[in-house]
Amino acid sequence: MAGGFHRIGRFTPTSQTCSACGTKDGPKPLHVRAWQCPSCGAWLDRDINAAVNVAKAAGLAVTACGAVVRPGPALADRGEAGTHPKSHQKMA
């Protein structure tokens, strides 16, 4: 990722604008976590869409487009996986 600080407008509607085609779909309640663009039909995760739009606004779209933002779950290495004191006790 490019270094430095990039500023975008505080009220830029990053989660309301389709990152695929640029259509502004308007405000949505916070419980709406994914939505479909009425113009291009793309399904957009609210947070990922906002992140892509922020990167585009900051001029970093090349690093954001096509990136794996949510990789699948992976097991932690044994040394990294913490243990809870009660995890070794059998559940009743």
Structural class designation: alpha+beta
Q: Helix tally?
A: 2
What's the SSE pattern? Answer: EEHH
The share of residues in extended strands comes to: 5-15%
Q: Could you give the distance between the termini?
A: 49 Å
**Total strands:** 2
Can you describe this structure?
A two-stranded antiparallel ribbon has the order 1-2. It has helices spanning 46-57, 61-64, and strands spanning 34-36, 43-45. The chain is extended. The protein has 92 residues and is α+β, with helices and mostly antiparallel strands. It is 17% helix and 7% strand. The model has no long low-confidence stretch (mean pLDDT 77).
Describe the structure using short key phrases:
alpha+beta, 92 residues, single chain
Outline of this structure?
The protein has helices at 46-57, 61-64, and strands at residues 34-36, 43-45. It is an alpha+beta fold and 92 residues long. It has a two-stranded antiparallel ribbon.
Ordered list of secondary-structure elements with their pairings:
Elements: E1 34-36, E2 43-45, H1 46-57, H2 61-64
Antiparallel strand pairs: 1-2
